[in-house]
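RECORD TYPE: inverse folding
INPUT: structure tokens
STRUCTURE:
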């Protein structure tokens, strides 16, 4: 039902300078796997096999990662290291990767709009922000959970989580009526508010219906002069229905140093436990 997933990956990653001066922040590794591969694996688990990636200048490493490296593979062929490529080979075999560029950083809404040429305007699609790394050790990944909800309600959905009140200014915040356990019909949402309507924060997982593109076209720039997807989704909520879903699992903000270290420790501890 939802086969396409969009990955906005054009940002500069300035919080990780100088590491991200020449390397995309989406390629920063958690243990031996880059952030964007975790996101692609989550999308693939959810049934998506078309990965649409919005890149920018200096992001060639992303396209190279999801392509064959003939020299490397020749060098390790037949060695114990060859199986280290098994997971990425599955993604390359089973998925189609498409790319376009966001030439200027004009906000997440603009990045998603740039993806129209890749995902089309006829079917719903997922959106994953790779630096929001999500895991659910007890079941389905976040995108899989959201697609199941979409199959019932057939509307745009944003993943949400509770955050401390002193952190709400860092997020898009929603308020609304809880219609099922953990599912909210959104009545209001605001990007990085000074005064928040709740502590329910949007994190980097979305399912969007294709009419969002027309709404984005008619949305004015908002916070920080950027085209905010929250502003477009609010308009969609006012004229239809948008849901907020309090997902099951754990989220790491790998766009911050603290979150990146926390994720690294979590995956290392989990690997050690399995070992």
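DESIGNED SEQUENCE:
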């Amino acid at each position: 039902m939802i086969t396409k997933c969009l990955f906005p990956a054009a940002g500069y990653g300035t919080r990780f300078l100088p590491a991200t001066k020449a390397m995309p922040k989406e390629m920063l590794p958690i243990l031996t796997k880059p952030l964007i591969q975790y996101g692609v694996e989550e999308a693939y688990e959810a049934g998506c096999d078309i990965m649409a990636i919005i890149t920018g200048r200096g992001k060639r490493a992303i396209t190279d990662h999801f392509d064959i490296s003939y020299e490397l593979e020749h060098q390790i062929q037949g060695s114990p290291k060859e199986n280290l490529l098994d997971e990425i080979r599955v993604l390359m075999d089973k998925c189609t990767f498409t790319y376009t560029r966001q030439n200027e950083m004009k906000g997440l809404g603009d990045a998603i709009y740039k993806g129209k040429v890749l995902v089309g305007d006829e079917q719903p699609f997922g959106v994953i922000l790779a630096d929001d790394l999500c895991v659910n050790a007890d079941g389905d990944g976040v995108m899989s959970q959201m697609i199941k909800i979409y199959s019932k309600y057939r509307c745009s959905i944003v993943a949400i989580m509770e955050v401390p009140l002193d952190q709400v200014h860092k997020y898009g915040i929603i308020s609304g009526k809880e219609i099922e356990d953990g599912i909210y019909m959104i009545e209001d949402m605001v990007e990085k508010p000074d005064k928040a309507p709740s502590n329910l924060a949007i994190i980097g997982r979305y399912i969007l219906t294709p009419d969002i593109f027309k709404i984005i076209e008619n949305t004015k720039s908002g916070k920080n002069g950027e085209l905010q997807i929250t502003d477009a989704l609010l308009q969609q909520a006012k004229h239809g229905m948008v849901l907020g879903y309090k997902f099951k699992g754990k989220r790491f903000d790998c766009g911050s140093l603290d979150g990146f270290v926390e994720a690294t420790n979590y995956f290392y501890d989990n690997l050690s436990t399995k070992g």
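NOTES: The radius of gyration is 18 Å.
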